[in-house]
Amino acid sequence: xxxxxxxxxxxxxxxxxxxxxxxxxxxxxxxxxxxxxxxxxxxxxxxxxxxxxxxxxxxxxxxxxxxxxxxxxxxxxxxxxxxxxxxxxxxxxxxxxxxxxxxxxxxxx
Amino acid sequence: xxxxxxxxxxxxxxxxxxxxxxxxxxxxxxxxxxxxxxxxxxxxxxxxxxxxxxxxxxxxxxxxxxxxxxxxxxxxxxxxxxxxxxxxxxxxxxxxxxxxxxxxxxxxx
Lengths: 109, 109
Hints:
By secondary structure, chain A is α+β, with helices and mostly antiparallel strands.
């Protein structure tokens, strides 16, 4: 088990989606994202779409939350879990979510 | 083969690293990141470190470049390629780089 100290975190979720199902995946993901964005502790998210159909990970979500606890509370909602399970069943993608902090940041001068 | 239209892109590189080698990975990655950050077209990067050693992807780079061409030119440098190959040989990680654009963006009200 992992314990988290306080403070903002980044959720990164890396999706394997068949390229021909990517448009449908993004449309259904948007509904779940809008639900999550109304939960306490949500700050921002960006869903990234691969430019090449040959890329292993066709979609990557990078989201900021005020704490790991806030994220876990939002993910525990039954409503959201049912939407996510239904989308996996319909579209057959795999998700790889994990919690991160920024280790190195560089901005162009 | 994938052709890219003009405009800014996001490079996302998802790394599988053994958790006990993560500190060494981040130290060697920093050297390569500093080299890349001096190349034309570089905008910014963030290397994210997983909070749990159980996460599949222990490190994720999210970087902004002015164009896919600028990124490819920077990646073609022999100096950088040799550094990256040496790090893979020493630390045994796998990299999964791909080029993305933002499909959905939501910020808290």
